[in-house]
Design brief:
The chain is mainly α. 68% of the residues lie in helices and 7% in strands. The longest helix has 40 residues. It is elongated, with a radius of gyration of 22 Å.
Length: 111
C-alpha cells in the first residue's frame, strides 16, 4: 500500500512513501488484552522514568535552563492523552454492556 506524502527536501513535489503507507495501515483496530495494555502502560512509565531521571540529574547538577525541542513531543502527548480518554470511555461502555448482558442472561435463567 503506497501513500502520498510530502517530501521536505524537495518542496515542489509529492512522492510515494513507505513511512506514510505504514501510518495509513496503523489506523486499523488492534486487539488489546489486559496484558497488552499493561505492557503499553509499562512502556509509558519507562519514558516517564527517563524524564524524571533527567529532571533529577539536572537539579542535582544545577542545570536549571534546558533548551529542548519539544513541540512534537507535546503534540504526541496531547494526542496520546486524548486517545487514552477516548479508549477509556469505550472500555467503560463495553463493561456496561457486558454487565447488562450477564444480568439479562441471569434473569432468563431464573424464569
Amino acid at each position: 500500500m503506497a501513500a502520498i506524502g510530502y517530501d521536505n527536501r524537495h518542496r515542489d513535489h509529492f512522492f510515494l512513501s513507505p513511512v506514510f503507507a505504514k501510518a495509513a495501515r496503523a489506523m486499523t483496530l488492534e486487539p488489546y488484552s489486559p496484558e497488552k495494555l499493561d505492557q503499553f502502560a509499562l512502556e509509558l512509565l519507562d519514558v516517564a522514568a527517563i524524564l524524571r531521571t533527567m529532571a533529577n540529574n539536572s537539579r542535582e547538577h544545577g542545570i536549571t535552563d534546558l533548551s529542548l525541542h519539544d513541540k512534537k513531543a507535546q503534540e504526541w502527548f496531547s494526542k496520546l492523552d486524548h486517545w487514552a480518554h477516548k479508549v477509556q470511555a469505550e472500555v467503560q461502555m463495553q463493561i456496561v454492556q457486558a454487565r447488562a448482558s450477564r444480568r439479562a442472561s441471569s434473569v432468563d435463567r431464573r424464569e
